[in-house]
Amino acid sequence: MLVRIGERLGDLDGQTFGHLPSGWSILYQLARLDRRTLERLIQEGVIHPALTEREARRLVAQLGGVTLKTPSVRAILRERLRRFAQFVERNLGDWSARERELATKELTQLIEQIALVGGVGPIGRSPSSITRCELSTH
């Protein structure tokens, strides 16, 4: 990625380069554009320092005539839950009793909220039959 950025963007003058975002992932996306298009989009303000990677990826895809597939809500949910589980696994040993209590309280409230909205709690039981103790163990 860095080689591609250097090859495609390395010879930009300082003034032009100052209009680019700073993340290398974003720069990699922008390096996929031809030079003329890149410079035009900078002049038009479409490419600016606050441009995100997602915006850059969409822009490059749009200019290439490609429609990006938007991940489903289910896929996003699974990925966020997976990343949160990894975070907890990595950091749980460093949490104080107070931090563990806070996490348990907040997660229990989320579980209760999910169960109430869905009308069914864990393992197919109605939310009214679920005790706080059962929620904290699932």
Kindly provide the radius of gyration, computed on alpha-carbon positions and rounded to a whole number of angstroms: 23 Å
Shape: elongated
Helix-and-strand structural type:
mainly alpha
Poorly predicted runs are 126-138
Number of helices: 8
Q: What fraction strand? A: under 5%
Whole-number mean pLDDT: 80
Number of strands: 0
| N-to-C order of helices and strands | HHHHHHHH
Helix content: 55-70%
Kindly, what is the distance between the CA atoms of the first and last residues, rounded to a whole number of angstroms? Answer: 42 Å
The major beta sheet can be summarized as: none
Description:
With 138 residues, this protein is mainly alpha-helical. It has helices at 2-9, 14-17, 24-30, 35-43, 53-63, 73-91, 97-118, 132-137. It has eight helices and no strands. Helix 1 (2-9) packs across helix 3 and helix 3 packs parallel to helix 5 (53-63). The longest helix has 22 residues, at 97-118. Mean pLDDT is 80; it is low at 126-138.
Brief characterization of the structure:
Helices cover 62% and strands 0% of the residues.
